[in-house]
Amino acid sequence: MAEALRIGIAGLGTVGASVARVLSSKAAELTRQCGRPIIVAAVSARDRNRDRGVDLGAAQWFDDPVALAKSADIDVFVELIGGDDGPALACVKAALEAGHHVVTANKALLAKHGVALAEIAERKGVLLNYEAAVAGGIPIIKTMREAMAGNTVSRVFGILNGTCNYILTRMEAEGLSFDACLKDAQRLGYAEADPTFDIEGHDTAHKLAILTSLAFGCKISADSIYLEGISNISQADIRAAGELGYRIKLLGVAVQTETGIEQRVHPTMVPTSSVIAQVHGVTNAVAVETDILGELLLSGPGAGGNATASAVVGDIADIAKSRPGFQHGPVFGRPAKELKPYKKAQMRSHAGGYFIRLTVHDRVGVFAAVAKRMADNDISLESIVQHGSSAEGDGSKTVILVTHETTEAAVRKAVEGITKDGHLIDKPQVIRIERAD
Amino acid sequence: MAEALRIGIAGLGTVGASVARVLSSKAAELTRQCGRPIIVAAVSARDRNRDRGVDLGAAQWFDDPVALAKSADIDVFVELIGGDDGPALACVKAALEAGHHVVTANKALLAKHGVALAEIAERKGVLLNYEAAVAGGIPIIKTMREAMAGNTVSRVFGILNGTCNYILTRMEAEGLSFDACLKDAQRLGYAEADPTFDIEGHDTAHKLAILTSLAFGCKISADSIYLEGISNISQADIRAAGELGYRIKLLGVAVQTETGIEQRVHPTMVPTSSVIAQVHGVTNAVAVETDILGELLLSGPGAGGNATASAVVGDIADIAKSRPGFQHGPVFGRPAKELKPYKKAQMRSHAGGYFIRLTVHDRVGVFAAVAKRMADNDISLESIVQHGSSAEGDGSKTVILVTHETTEAAVRKAVEGITKDGHLIDKPQVIRIERAD
Asked: What residues form the catalytic site here (chains A, B) (predicted)?
């Protein structure tokens, strides 16, 4: 039997405690799989005395996570502190510089400092594994980094935030308002007290930024992502989508275009008959399209202590199976120094179909004016649904347009024109349509 | 730059030629990902002169694949000959004994000799990779063998045969008969001239047997699989399924039960709202349920030269990233010598819901007799659909029963009883229902 692999865990919250429990309860099976034992040699957390359902008495205790990261008594440093700077960054840097492998679930950290950290890891010849950082338990990093070797990716997209998907699922299933669903999500612990980070798409953006780098061999650029959250999605949108054969999901999408890479996070219409449309509740899903393999989709739990811990344990097991002398694959698919600069595509040139919902005055000539603005901008329409006068009796009418493939610029110009015409009662709603099988 | 990894490919059919083309066209990117070049050093095939869209002039030619397998000029032997014995087995054995890593897409070979071959690989300290053997381009082997380390699997199930899924999809979408769809599948190259192997479930069984071993850490036992194909699925079944909120798929299912492992391949009703129900055409999908991660589903192309080649190239890239001194994980998740004996659960004790379609004489008392047989066997019913007298005017009537969870033994007894009662005009149709999200 080879020597045990010694793990140091910084952060013993929900995920950290679950990792410690799995390493303990599944010790025999992991030893069999990896050819050597994996032991929790050291830990660091805020509260030393909390009961975490696992005996950590044999592990060395560190008050300072950076001291743990540098400790000569560990082989692998597991960072579960969180945050895109501060102690998490200091720890991971220190661990890599000390020649320790690192496993992290920290998407914010990687979205901001991933390339710099990868450079250190590759210089020191250690692994930096981060399966848990994107889509929780779904092995999308392993799939893109290892299984898709040799594939050229054209598009990657997914449901990367369970909170948003939970809210959208309940809004559709139960006809509830966004606010009511958000409150329930908060009550059930699926959403934070301040839900902005989730519902405005920032969390999705962090994960997408990491996937984009892996997909296209470019530097991570989380700041270049077009961002639109789900807080302005109404029952009217969800019902109209359903009538037209679509379902609304918050997607992160990255596409290689002729002018550069397009990264966007926004509410998206996907065909109800597609696989991704059936991904309900807090479940996540990621789809990747490549030249050789074709289209692959993975769905599963995107959050939660156990699912995330499963990804962390998988990362640790991969390290346990490696040995000195093993040449590790690069952190982001190609060596960090050879990652291409990120070249952003102009969002105004995004091409695709659009759903446009207009609340207009119920008077003669409005529909003709709307149709003219579309035609003037060369937008051809796939379908037009005009609902009769509203039940509110306020003289409003709803017009729903679904366009064939057109450009973002054309849609924006058409909608500006319609707004200027003075027929609108309410803000126009524009939702992009994404092709999905 | 480290030394090149030298590949020997035996079998240059659709998949083999595609592998050679990818290794050539993506050489630069693969070198970057793996830290060293991968070169096709030797090949063996039936026809030396066929144009395969890639220049293999620099590769050493072997008429005898076993000689290629033993050659000291290769590091990795790629077996794409096919067949569960004969040259494929001889080659793979010879390559492993010669200390070469092996990559194979051969499910039949592994279903029959997988454990014996794994023992040789583990004794020689080389890798035996077989991602392409199950579900083509879907990285289910990597996911179960690596990403799910530490997880205890309770159930694995999937759509593992594209031919069957293509036929069932078209039957439902277009209302065509099984025979008409099979003919089209043959014309399009999705089905063999003799389609028995696919449509009677043997191909699915081979793949399931491999997944079962990975899932439960047991020896491969393809012969223990309960087998039922799709050739007796009629439009009546598909329509009735749709009315009840189900879709029919040929699934391979392996479940850990209290009495042992249940492996079965049969037409299955899955809820229309489930993700797996949306997997259409030749696409495959595999779902795995575990204690830590929860439920994960992967869907993608299950066959085809390129998709299969993608999996083979991924396996080769994993070997390229390893180096001497690397301790490989076991072939089937736990060391071959420690795989548990396969303990078969009795199919008669299978528990689940059932769909039962009966064509009965349209006369008084039939329904009461059917209901009594169900009650006598403690089968409680979820729904009963009784269609009016048939359009054929032949005095027949259709009764469809959907049961709550019950046992295979109870259902068989009830159906035997109903048959004895003499009310049936046609053979009763029994289709199992599988829980899926």
From this structure: 207 (proton donor)
Among the CATH numbers 3.40.630.30, 3.30.70.260, 3.20.70.20, 3.50.50.60, which is that of A348-433? 3.30.70.260
Please give the backbone phi and psi of residue B108, each rounded to the nearest 5 degrees, phi first: -65, -45
What residues contact B268, with CB distance under 8 A and at least 6 apart?
B248, B249, B250, B251, B253, B431, B432, B433, B434
Considering the domain delimited by B5-137+305-337, tell me its CATH architecture: 3-Layer(aba) Sandwich (3.40)
- Chain B contact set for A322 (CB, 8 A): 326-327
Please report the residues numbered 200 through 229 in chain B whose beta carbons come closer than 8 angstroms to any beta carbon of chain A: 217
CATH architecture of B146-301: 2-Layer Sandwich (3.30)
Say yes or no to pLDDT of B352 above 90. no
Residues 6 or more apart in contact with residue A292 via CB below 8 angstroms: A150, A151, A152, B18, B22, B306, B307, B309, B310, B313
Neighbours of A341 (CB within 10 A): 7
Q: Which residues of A touch B131 (CB under 8 A)?
A: 147
Question: Can you give the residue ranges of every domain in chain A?
Answer: 5-137+305-336, 147-301, 348-433
Tell me if chain B has a CB within 8 Å of the CB of A313: yes
Q: Would an 8 Å CB–CB cutoff place A148 in contact with chain B?
A: yes
**Interface list for A 249-268 with B (CB within 8 A):** none
Residues on chain A touching B293 (C-beta within 8 angstroms):
137, 300-301, 306-307, 310-311
Specify the DSSP element, H or E, that contains B297: strand B295-301
Query: Which ipTM did the prediction report?
Result: 0.94
**What SS3 class is residue A409?**
helix
Nearest alpha carbon to residue B235 among B277, B182, B278, B178: B178
- Sorted by sequence, the CB contacts under 8 Å of residue A275 that are 6+ apart come out as A285, A287, A297, A299, A436, A437, B275, B278, B279, B299
Q: A5-137+305-336 belongs to which CATH class?
A: alpha beta
Q: State yes or no: pLDDT of B410 exceeds 70.
A: yes
Cβ-Cβ pairs closer than 8 A, A with B, add up to 218
CATH number of the structural domain B349-433: 3.30.70.260
Question: B3 in contact with A at a CB cutoff of 8 Å?
Answer: no
Min Cα–Cα distance to chain B from A391, Å: 32
- Reported as a single tens digit per residue, the pLDDT across A70-107 is 999 999 999 999 999 999 999 999 999 999 999 999 99
Inter-chain CB proximity B327 and A33 less than 8 Å: no
Query: Is B207 assigned a catalytic role?
Result: yes
**Edge-to-edge strands, sheet with B128-129:** B60-62, B38-44, B5-10, B76-79, B101-104, B128-129
> Is there a binding annotation on residue B15?
yes
Q: Residues A98-136: pLDDT tens digits?
A: 999 999 999 999 999 999 999 999 999 999 999 999 999
Chain A interface includes B244 (CB < 8 A): no
